[in-house]
Amino acid sequence: MSQHAVPLIFRSPTRLTVGRDQLLNLFEMLLDPMVLVFSQWAVALAMNGQLKPGDIILSVIVFAMTFPGSSRLTMPPWRAIRHIIMGWLALSVLLFLFGYASHYLGEFDPDVLLAWWWVALASMVGAHFLLRAVAPKIRKLQGPPRRVVIAGMNEQGLELANRLANDSYASVRVVGFFDDRGSERLNSNSEFAKYAILGKLAELPEYVKKQHIEGVYLSLPMASQPRILTLLDGLRDTTGSIYFVPDSFVTDMIQGRMESVGGIPVVAVCDTPFVGFNRIIKRTSDIVLSILILLLISPFMLLIALGVKATSPGPVIFKQRRYGLDGHEIIVYKFRSMVTMDDGDTVQQAQKKDMRVTPLGALLRRTSLDELPQFFNVLQGRMSVVGPRPHAVAHNEMYRRLIKGYMLRHKVQPGISGWAQVNGCRGETETLEKMKSRVDCDLEYLRHWSLRLDAYIIAKTVWVVLRGENAH
Hints:
Distance between the termini: 29 Å
Strand order of the largest sheet: 3-2-1-4-5
Radius of gyration: 26 Å
Number of domains: 3
Number of helices: 14
Shape: globular
């Protein structure tokens, strides 16, 4: 995983499936939403003596934004506490901004909200450690661990076996592997030698039947379709549940999920996170935030415009062609910070002590104030408040040939700030490795987008800008 990987608390939740071995998973998914709702109700009843309509609406919003809850049982205790605090701070900022922008914040007693904030935080921490204490008993309620085997001793099969073995809360035990290669060949790899090789693939159905194996994970290459079909045909005469482990090393999955097209099941390998309701949420938050921010900074922007006009010849606003959603060209606005207006087939990035940068422009770039006009781009629907930073068209055409998967970052609208910018990848990318690191961050954002992650990036952007990191 990339060194700039998205913290677990901000990652998109997996789809909820409930079964005999999913009881602990269900508790985890319900824990945070229920704790937040019940703590809010408890504080409102204690301080107001009743639940007002606004309290019910707020509880529904909070539940919708936090369900399903994050999984933290496998984290060290200190990291779990940190993730709870960070997640609650991010959610609080988001709720405050929406409440302020909609003028609904005034409907609540500030003392009640403040008390709920502390009670909710303490309750989430306490509930998490209570769940840790009772998790072994919940696991026992699920019955003995399910005995499973894996067909195909390869990288993804080994990764699955290792994760199940290292998960102290998993209710699955890997009995061993089936593979057509000889044991002496497989055991030459020390990682493979940790697990038993139970036989050839042709022997798998009979073994599952006789040993009452409860689950079979098919970890075979996608090119092995005839073998997979033969194996599936043989397993029809068993009671074992069958799961297919996709060869995730074949392609870099972005927003991978199962869907149905015309009644035919398909697997989404690379898609945008902003589909359906997520698209509405993202666009609504962009409109509300950009209007609110523009109202707050408009006098300041007027002063900057006057300063740019007075200190150097040329227009106040610098317009440059960049790639937007799905690789379509857009025009991005910035306060002019250079004496040149580069927008051709060759565009040189700004560097330290760049002679093209004006004295006022140096200040604007260091503090990112030159980016403020892009909030108008957000209102136009060309950009988002949070997303991968757009590059000049000339840079895009160069890097798309040098970096595999570069254009995947255009599956979403470009942003004023992004996951790369708050993780040390802001500013000049004078080496290919630096640009690769930025692209890795952008793809991590696509994989794990959530409103909480957007709120976290916005909050951290303020800190990064104040420190003036990597801005030229």
